[in-house]
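User: Hey, my collaborator sent me this sequence without any context and asked if I could get a structure. I don't really work with proteins. Can you help?
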Amino acid sequence: MRSLPIAPLAQQKEFWASKFQDVGWVAPRLIAGMATSDYFYCREIVQVRTDTWYRGRVVLVADAAHCPSPMTGMGTTSALVGAYVLAGEIAHNAGDLGVAFANYDRTLRPFLGELQRLPGWVFPLIMPKARLGLVAWLRIPQLVARFAGEERGGWVVPEYALLNESMAKRGEGELLGLRGKELG
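Assistant: No problem. I've predicted the 3D structure and written it out in structure-token form, which is a compact way to encode the shape of the chain:
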């Protein structure tokens, strides 16, 4: 499977057709469309985790630092929250970027740790083997919205007085509307 994205296009299409040929429902139509399409894209989903998001004066942000699981739908949220925390820590520790970067890493990691976890029961949903699995896969956003509670995680976005004061002076208001809100 790892070599599939670099295999010839015909081999990639054959692989996916064989995986979904017995699923039923609209799968035969989708397979036929895939076989004749000039536009086909196949890549593996990879999530890299690092022990630190900074070294010296270089800091990783967003997906480069803390890409959440693709099943969470939280990529943009984690990127914006991460940028806010990094800006806040730099504003609070402007004289020592090493401390600012270490605090960014330490402050944000609990929130991102939750987003990066992908429970084992999700894998059968990603690669359905039966009609029920395919229907479930197509309904994941609705299922998540229905069963996910607003209070999950309990991580609270930190407040950065210096950052917020600086923005208020420029008339920019509250950054992202996130300050002091619970996320997760």
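In plain terms: Residues 97-116 form the longest helix (20 residues). You can pass these tokens on to your collaborator as they are.
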